[in-house]
Structures are given as C-alpha cells and as structure tokens.
C-alpha cells in the first residue's frame, strides 16, 4: 500500500513491530530507496533478510552487533546524532541479518534495491569525511558516510546533515529528478529528521520542478520523514534554539552511482555570497575520530 502523503509524521509509518518507521519502494510508490528505523530494548535482538536490497545499519543512539550470514560486526555507535560520528555496517542483498544490543538503542537501516551483491563490511567512524558546507546562515555540517565516491555500494547513497538552530540547509533549492549526463542524476530521496530540544521543530520545502510535481511545505519534528520523488528540495529550516539533524537516503536507476544536482535558477546566486562570509562558529558540531577531511 502506497503512502498518501510526502510528509510522514513520526509514528505514522510504523510497522506495528520494532520499526518506528518503515518506508520501502512499495510504500513510497517508487523503485529503489528505503528507510527503516529500528528500536531495540536492552538485551533484545531483531532478525531480517535483506532480500533484493543492500542496507547500511547506522546507529542513531546506542551500539549494537550486526551479524551478517554468521559474521559479527560490532558497532560502538554513539549517544545521539548530535554527539558524534558513528561507525556503521554494510549488509548486502540476499543476506540473513541479526541485530543485537545489550544496552538498547535506535538504528537506521538505509536501503536501496540493487543488482550486485557486494561483501558485508564494517565502516569505521574514523573513515567518515566530515564536511562544512555553505557559510553564514547557510552553514551546515555533512557527514559523508556513504556518499558516492566515499563508500562502495551498488546503488545506495546516504549522508547525514546537521544544521545549527536558525540556519537554512539544503539551500539553494536543488533537484536530481532527471538524467542529464554530467549535470544531473535521477535519484529518489528520503529525509529523516531529528530536532534537538523539547518541542523542537523545523520546516521542509519541496517545490514542483514540473507540472503536477511534488509540492510540500511541512513542519517537521523528531521522527518525521519527507519523501522526495522529484522537485526542487530546500530549504530545510532549523528553528532558532533547535539544531536540526536529517539523514538523506538516495537511490535511482542510473548506470553510474553519482550525486549530480541542479540548483534552482532563481536562487543559485546565493552561492556567490558564501566566500564573503565566515562559516557559522558553532560548526563543526564534532569531527570524526580520525579528524576532519
């Protein structure tokens, strides 16, 4: 059954079991991208088969052991998404997987339908490139743990973005819904949000890039997701006093795994102002254990 809206409030796409969020291609009405958020109580385990998709298990809070076809991959994890970069585990398609956590926690499973079966692997936190993007009120931090060219997957691309309260990210608005060689790649995208502080909130905009295209203006809170099959997406606005985290999950039909975007022509000029402004001094929130790259 497909979801009837592009804004998925927290809890509205739970599976009735351990997943507090469960969005696959069938629910999203597209071909590739998937995201699950798994909550484990202390000492509990969860078993699944990866099926026709590759997955990355990414700790949001807490640590776990990911056992793939009998091979254990121990993840130290982190206290929360605002506390540090985390290690992660890559799970190939057609695998039997068990997650176990002595202390409990929450874990994102970022997924993409794929063709190749790559080996299961451990991704160390020290290998995650931490990038500062934009300046001034457009300053944000990007943790490129599974960016194209950083970590090998068949189709999956996934990164984390942290935006200080009061700043705009995913700006200028951009899109990747057409195949234009060397200029733009076709990628479906899921945004998953966590907001700091009590009653934390932010806003997400998606505007149509074609007649009848995706049109969203949503107030987002912790646990919400936004589906972006097409359209100019941005800004992602962090309310003053509330830092914003979002996890981006992308995949598409292109022969090459690449992230190529086109900026909205009305707003692309903002990039020319960035060299004149300093980066937000609140950034980075943290560096990878091996240092910024």
From TrEMBL:
GO-annotated molecular function: isomerase activity
Keyword check for Isomerase: yes
Species annotation: Streptomyces stramineus
Origin superkingdom: Bacteria
Entry keyword set: Isomerase
Family annotation (Pfam families): KduI
The protein's name in its UniProt record: 5-deoxy-glucuronate isomerase
